[in-house]
Amino acid sequence: MEAIDPEKLAAIGAFYEDAQFLSPGISTEIGITDNTDGKHAPKGFFGVKAPYYLSIYSEKKDRYMMNAGCIMEQISLYMLTLGIASCFLGNVSYRDAKQRGDKEFIIVLAFGKPDGPLTRRSVDARRLAVQDLCIFKEDPRRWTQDIIEVARLAPSAFNAQPWRFVVLANRIHFFSKKRDIDRMGRWDEFDFGCLFAHILVTADELWLDLDLIRLENISQKNFRSSQYVLSAIIKAE
Ligand SMILES: Cc1cc2nc3c(=O)[nH]c(=O)nc-3n(C[C@H](O)[C@H](O)[C@H](O)COP(=O)(O)O)c2cc1C
Asked: Residues lining ligand 1, judged by CB closer than 6 Å?
């Protein structure tokens, strides 16, 4: 419950302004609630006690949940670089702040100095193995393997990992596991946003010229147990 330097809090706000948006046409807003006195925690189930809570609000447009997930996971990764730990809280909210103008409340990210180690080894994260996630149509290039690994480690609500990957040498197609007849689960779209945040950050780190796009020829196909979402395509290494 320790306070964080005001400069770090300001840096988080500045980072948000520069974060990569999946859909630049969707207007969003964030707000940080100071709970260092323990009196300003949001209400709901599965809450986590933390000194700060960051909320995001978004206009409700096509793919707005994916866009919000992408922004929030970039913020969470950025916090890590500042030595700050964080946890999404999908079931809590502020009763008096469900709306900000035309924007709707989406999710809260609890954050603060970690009460223990900030990171763990990736093998200690509970995630599906590559062979359970991917169908390999061609031998992947090295960058393709790097992208699969960071995508695999993305967080998801209840750790559901609602995704499957179809891998070619220079591209990966991302599919959502169908849960209902043809609808995604409540948080699936947000989870995919987290996954694409990992990919965008990694592409930047590796200096890869990578596009995340929806391919019309695939989106028109019907699949029994999965739904096409997007493809990551490398243009040049
Ligand atoms: C949309 C979303 C909602 C989440 N909601 C909660 C929550 O309410 N409470 C909680 O403790 N964790 C929540 N989490 C964290 C996930 O449970 C966690 O990321 C996942 O189980 C994987 O665990 P790890 O990130 O520690 O590896 C949420 C994650 C996401 C992406």
From this structure: 46, 48, 87-91, 125, 155-159, 187, 190-191, 194
